[in-house]
Design brief:
The protein contains 14 helices and eight strands. By secondary structure, it is an alpha/beta fold. It has an eight-stranded mixed sheet, sandwiched between helices. It is globular and about 55 Å long.
Amino acid sequence: MADFHQNGNIATLHNLRTRSTEDLTHELVTLAGSRKISLILPSLYSELEGPALENIIKELSGAPYLHRIIIGLDRANEEQFRHARKFFSVLPQTHSVIWNDSPRMQAIQDRLRAMDLAPREPGKGKNVWTCIGYLLACQDSSVVAIHDCDITTYNKDMLARLVYPVTNPAFPYQMAKGFYPRTDGARLNGRVSRLLVSPLLIALKRTVGDRDYLDFLRSFRYPLSGEFAMRVSTLADLRIPSDWGLEIGVLSEGWRNLAPKSVCQVEIADNYDHKHQPLSEEDATAGLSRMSVDICKALYRKLATDGTVFSEEVFRTLKATYYRSALDLMECYYNDAKMNGLSIDRHQEEAAIELFARNVVLAGQIFLENPAEPPSIPTWNRVHAADPDLLSDMLKAVEADDTEFS
């Protein structure tokens, strides 16, 4: 059974195992009568061929409170789009598959590029941002949830618990972040969160001093969780990175736009596992190496906008402080895993820490060399101001793709 500890910065909603999924679902169905709930699924086509998505679709079919499901499909050709439409057709809810690589959607991207408002690079952030725009164009939802398509331990209870805090009108929450233990039952996983983000936040606090923003991030049990829910009214002013900094970027927007009492974290699973990225020690543009650089840049940029001054000396000190903090935490994680009968490869853990330590400085160098680089995708409010017809035209493009390739 979980604890009931509150950290004092944001609300933590635990799973005390005293309420059934059926009871929670019944209440959500009632609430959804006046507050429609939608779900965004950012997906690579390859995930349709993986071990997780078929079960996710099966579980979602048993979520009667869902009004709309939006699937953002990346890296798919025409034949694969046709297959994706068939794959998702079993969903009983209203659903749309956005073929991000279609000629029509590429034309939308060309319009954005002409205004210098397009995402700078492809990735999950761009996919989510596009789906958010489509949802805003639909104008029929009050709550939206987002989660990944590679969760091998998925069940519908995860979604019910995720959306409940922002759906219940008696609660003040406008953003809910999911948390859980990252384990497959044999190993303790979640290396980037355990060995990069947690010790880096400690090191940043020691290096640049107390910051309310750092305390806010440290309040989250799993800051890199890809599962969060928000009230749709907050989306039009949301600035998110297009790279692997998406999860940190969304939390940073919660810090920037919302009062702490409007943000919560909610326990959504007893165990959680998904596909694992390679460490990619030799290639900083791929795997966990790329992810670590993007996350560090997202943190540095947010701190800089709040007035923190960075230099090469600061990043060198940060690297040393991070390295010591990470080794200390690794010992804690090792003992925790050992006590619970889980395995951890200490050699691989230290190899990851050494890579992340190098990337703490590499991300700092990139930041110092490109201080004026746009840190995030423009908000949909700005896009609408520049081109008031783009959202409705994107809605038509998705509908036209669906009609043509049905």
